[in-house]
Write a structure and sequence with these properties.
- By secondary structure, the protein is α+β, with helices and mostly antiparallel strands.
- It is 13% helix and 25% strand.
- A 3-stranded antiparallel sheet has the order 1-3-2, with no helix packed on it.
- The mean pLDDT is 83.
Length: 63
């Protein structure tokens, strides 16, 4: 995902009724590797997902 913002994203704790702030937490739990790189105009967050993290229709996801 890319955006024009210059702030570095970071994992944070969210409260029950917070409406945002969970994206990196989910990404960190689902991805084998992830990171962020700055560009001239913004940043990009990237992720690599492994096959073992994908569940079939008959099995639960592994988190």
């Amino acid at each position: 995902m890319s955006d024009a913002g210059s702030t570095t994203p970071h994992l944070r704790r969210t409260r029950t009724f917070d409406e945002d702030g969970r994206g990196l937490l989910l990404l960190a739990q689902l991805a084998e590797r992830w990171g962020m790189r700055h560009a001239r105009q913004g940043k990009t967050v990237w992720a690599e997902l492994g096959e073992e993290k994908h569940a079939g229709p008959w099995e639960p996801a592994v988190l």
